Amino acid sequence: MLNGKNVYLGKVRSSIRELFEYGKKRKAEIGEDNVFDFSLGNPSVPAPAAVREALIDIIEHTDPVALHGYTSAQGDFSVRKTIADYINARFSTSLTADNLYMTCGAAASLTITLNAILNPGDEVITIAPYFPEYKVFTEQAGGKLIAVAGKVGTFGIDVENLKKALSPRTKAVLINSPNNPSGVVYGEEDISLLVKEIKEYSKPHGMEIYLISDEPYRELVFDKDTKVPYIMNYYERSIVCYSYSKSLSLPGERIGYIAVNNKMPEWEEVYAGVCGAGRALGYVCAPALFQQLVKRVYNQTSNISVYKLNRDRLLSALEEYGYEVVKPDGAFYMFVKALEPDAKRFAERAKQFELLLVAGDDFEAPGYVRISYCVSPQMILRSLPAFKALADSYKSV
Amino acid sequence: MLNGKNVYLGKVRSSIRELFEYGKKRKAEIGEDNVFDFSLGNPSVPAPAAVREALIDIIEHTDPVALHGYTSAQGDFSVRKTIADYINARFSTSLTADNLYMTCGAAASLTITLNAILNPGDEVITIAPYFPEYKVFTEQAGGKLIAVAGKVGTFGIDVENLKKALSPRTKAVLINSPNNPSGVVYGEEDISLLVKEIKEYSKPHGMEIYLISDEPYRELVFDKDTKVPYIMNYYERSIVCYSYSKSLSLPGERIGYIAVNNKMPEWEEVYAGVCGAGRALGYVCAPALFQQLVKRVYNQTSNISVYKLNRDRLLSALEEYGYEVVKPDGAFYMFVKALEPDAKRFAERAKQFELLLVAGDDFEAPGYVRISYCVSPQMILRSLPAFKALADSYKSV
Questions:
Q1: Which of A13, A22, A80, B153 could share a disulfide with A100, CB 3.0–4.6 Å?
Q2: What are the backbone dihedrals phi and psi of residue B96, each rounded to the nearest 5 degrees, phi first?
Q3: Which residue out of A13, A68, A117, A237 would a mutagenesis test of the B interface target, given it has the greatest number of B Cβ atoms within 10 Å?
């Protein structure tokens, strides 16, 4: 008997994947340009030129034994220091290299963090809609994921819902902002109220509840007045899980970090837990070349104006066609209300118009579909008549 | 309360690490060249020139969106096919791309494999001396590691000891050849007897016992007549965990693979378990650039003749000085009998001669020390008088 849970996880394809595979087939049938595949969250903008230049410079001018050798398990010291200094300058924190742990990307940041803090049966609260792997990661670490619905219509944090979910077993609250799949950013008020609630519940219970912020989309915000609060400035027991996958368009290279807030009294214990969990899960060190890369380009991003262009075009067109859209502040996702109660049926119908949209059911937000607009601006333009026709098809009924 | 086990793992430094840190301090005191640090297993030979050339060529001539994008979770198809074809040509197997899963190196290969096959309480048998992280990885996956002593003096597989350890809870036997820390290669006779024993025990019990071969040192053998048997040709239920860390001197880049023998009836289930375990542990895909690199240089190695030179010089000198050495066939480790019963005391005494050796106790083989000879040939020469003086210090007592 193998490990049944992992065999199952290896066999079930996510419905996002299914849709993507369907899209590949369909493109072969009717042509690449005639299928509007909004299924995957794969950056469509290339890494900035500085990435290519830095990679070549590093490879050409570094002793290969040093370059490709093991770094310490928590990552190269100077890389961690560079990132800590940058965070401090940007968010007025006072982190040191010893608060940072370099990881193989966001998924690793999360699994390591969860394994550091969870004991069997502990609960992790997250806000729906949410990235479905949160459940997989939490359960692997022995915990249970409790999803609470976000605010109806805006998908901000609904503090009343959160309040009901807090329990003596709550060990962490896991947030993701800018959010996948809604594109919503939790603003200062959201975070302040969330933190107040966590404090009010945990203090009289003598509990330690950690706030984990999953931030692969932090840099992908499009409007000057959109601020993504840095949770360390709101709550002591906070841990930031970061990845360069989306900001630098390097998702396949697996590079990110965990930052443990050194304002919490037990930060050294938490950091030791991170080191131990990384070790137990088989993370020896984050890819060394890409650690060195990050040291050079930590403050750069891909050309995210393309995503903004896509968002603006799509948003105004969809609203014009009569869709109800949750206004996306960031990431490269848009959450749109389905034109019939069952979003899965709606997404099926969209396929008739060659539109590949993911039903919100996958994110525990039924009644909506997700549009991943990390595609070419040309495809956005080509897809608009299909969105219009889809909307019209409901009007004519 | 954090996860106590992982906090503990993050706090305890391995004694190998301790020794390495001691070495760094000592070098600062008396000079780099006067300390003979044989503590760590870090390749000292640079990656072959082809690695640098291929990396630059790939970076310069590949669309960055494709190059740095996600590959499929199991790895890029063409990379897996290239490796499968290479294994087939070399070992007369008939693997396909769908039997291979690209990983972030050997540690990930092991944690993923163990999480794929183990259920809580399952036992994994390994042969001592063994790499200490085997215990950490097995326990993280919910299993229990049972170490059986290798043959006295040669550290080959002792089938009688193995026989006693087999139980209804045995789910896997985990071998490592060429071996860390002994440098011993399990030859054809070792493997044949091991497999016979596993079959004889599992068949009447109706059990499925997997043979896992951890092979980061496969390419590091020095003599023409040393053959490292390919376990898929001896046993159906076999899984190979491979890494390019040592063969290509890329330990920090985290690239390797798992190969599931397609001769076993349930290979698709095992492979699904591997995919699921990888997913649950947070391994999204192996670093994409290094997957492409492997596709170009899969059949190359660093200049391992340096390790052979080191081995030969050290072996003949130590034997001349009166040490009893386990003949190392491969890897870059040498196991030497301590000159007093307590190897830890022996290793402490060696420090007086500026020799940093790791006591075998860490590998469940007390009475011996490990010498990691992945160092410069000059350091080997410089260290010889110290080894002689250490031996002499016992004679004069």
A1: A80
A2: -120, 175
A3: A68
